[in-house]
Design goal:
The complex is a heterodimer of chains A (182) and B (224). Chain A is mostly helical and 182 residues long. Chain A has helices at 23-43, 60-69, 73-102, 110-120, 126-140, 150-168, 171-181; strands at 6-8, 15-18, 47-51, 54-58, 145-148. In chain A, strand 3 (47-51) and strand 4 form a beta hairpin. The radius of gyration of chain A is 19 Å and the shape is elongated. The two termini of chain A are 25 Å apart. Chain B is mainly alpha-helical. Chain B folds into two domains: 1-44, no CATH class; 47-215, Up-down Bundle (Butyryl-CoA Dehydrogenase, subunit A, domain 3), CATH 1.20.140. Chain B is 58% helix and 9% strand. Chain B is built from eight helices and five strands; from the N terminus they run αββαββααααβαα. Chains A and B meet through strand 3, strand 4, helix 2, helix 3 and helix 4 of A and helix 3, helix 4, helix 5, helix 6 and strand 5 of B.
Chain lengths: 182, 224
Amino acid sequence: MPDGGAAICSRCGCTLFRRQRRTVEFTLALVSAAAILFVVANAYPFLSFEMQGQVTQTTLGSGTLALWDQKQHAVALLVVWTTIVAPALQIGLLIFVLAPIHLRFSAPGAVTAFRWVEHCRPWSMMEVFLIGILVAVVKLSDMANIIPGLALWAFGLLIPVLAGASSFLDSEIVWREIGDLE
Amino acid sequence: MTAAALGRLRRAHAQCHTCSLVVATPNGPDAPLRCPRCRASIHRRKPNSLARTWALLLAAIICYVPANLYPVMEVTTLGRSQADTILSGVIYLYVHGTWPLAVIVFIASVVVPILKIITLASLALSVERSSQWRPRDRARLYRIVEAVGRWSMVDVYVVTILVALVHLGSLASVEARLGAVFFGTVVVLTILAAESFDPRLIWDRLEDGSKASGVQHEGDRDGE
């Protein structure tokens, strides 16, 4: 299988896997960048709302807290899971799995960690959240002044970086490396 | 390799659903077994795939009705309250905002959930009835449904952001309403339903069908 080549199921046409050159190094680099951007995206407000001199602003966490205060616990949990916990697990666990492979030592729990990376993948919905921000801005724009915050730019960068990381990730090679190191 | 040999090979092996390793199943396909590489339990097919898919789909259909009838949020500006359902939110965007965004939200929160439920139900039905109809296209349909479902979450996020930003008491405030709970439930249920459906069942039924009629089909040929 050549680098960059893909295995395609001859029966249903589904891509089985894509062989990536230096998958561990490239993915690790992008995920590390994603980790920094993720912290910025969570620490700073992404939107400020100004109406008749009064200003409110929101971060990812405070948004879900507001939902929780309105007794919408289920929705709040769903939002926390898809925009904070699942992406954080995905980024954190990938670093935890890939860094030891790069440095050639065996990390305890790497198998469980990488299984969780695969489980979290469909639930990490940062790119959908960005469209949500866009829609919210349009809805509020004739009601008040909307000021984009620092976290919004971090979001905008985070999404292509995360997409790059997952396209460079060759799970097959990572599983094999985990097995070799154990 | 002959078709018979390939069939024997297939029956004696299973692929791990988590790490894709192909594992030999010496004690038969249904004996309990753990993947030697990732320690997930090995199944030849996703367990109870059809029953789970149907149950989750049914629950999604039930929740879909209140998700669209109840308002997802209530906007109060200068003492005036207005409740918004999913659909009225789209209409508001079309009238006051920009139409491309209205189209995106309409597709993400109205078209995608309906099409997803209909598509998964007809895929499950086609497997149930051992359909021989265009298996490749059905498999492609499944992959599209799997990829597109997450975008329905947009409306849940919009409600979250509005609730978080607009809380200036009687001047302006937004409150989440029951519809948001049901809508979020529909999205989660359809994602789980798509995850529990096993597209390989499409070919299993194809094999069963051709075995009965004695026809050798595409899947048993060696490579393509």
